[in-house]
Amino acid sequence: MDTPIISATITCSSTPNNTLWGSASTVETTTVCIRSSLGCISGEVYKIDEDVSVLPTPGHTSEDVTVLVKTRDYGTVAVTGDLFEREEDLSEPSLWREVAGSQFPDKQETNRNKILAVADYIVPGHGPMFKVSQEIKNRLKPD
């Protein structure tokens, strides 16, 4: 299926079905493959345009990414996949560390803090979007 309206797909965690979108470029995990070019970008920030960028945020797995979107109504929205399972894991770390399982908990904690510092809202892997309040930002651990 060739779908010209869809120009890119972004997967926050590895999944095998991204070939469904025909000629669309694919951002899957920490490697970006542009269908119209031969190369891939791996392990670095990929800027789609002025308002959308993809950042490597390993932790839950080694390949996870977060999509940052600058919006007019919500400020910076982070689509994080399983970097955040749901809002409740902010107050109960065992939800992302043990229950969901983190392959690299130190990296995940570092990347969670980085995203919390820049995001106004987070779309987690398994729950509704939530606001990153000033109270949450005040609890961040310094680097």
TrEMBL record:
Which portions of this protein are annotated as coiled-coil regions? Answer: none
Q: Which SUPFAM superfamilies match?
A: Metallo-hydrolase/oxidoreductase (SSF56281)
Recorded hits in InterPro entries, A to Z, give: MBLAC1, RibonucZ/Hydroxyglut_hydro
Q: Specify the superkingdom.
A: Eukaryota
Descriptive protein name: Metallo-beta-lactamase domain-containing protein
| Organism in which the protein naturally occurs | Graphocephala atropunctata
